[in-house]
Amino acid sequence: MLPIISPATPDVPTSKPSPSLAAAAEPAPPASPSTPTVKSSEIPIFFDARVVARRDDGWEDMLERTLLRWTSVVVEERRNRSR
Asked: What pTM did the predictor assign?
């Protein structure tokens, strides 16, 4: 679990879907009973998907930093499993 911080999204619609759409939607999967904890010593990663999608200033660095950190964690996990 990476310590990713993303900005709040105040303009996300908060209205409930109409009853006909709600009935057609599949139920959400149940929540996991145990949530992995993030190490407090890890430096959080700031990632704003909107900045990347819009290709605003700094989007490449933001995406690269996140992907490199994720890749490092995956490699570490794989190495630890093989021991």
From this structure: 0.59
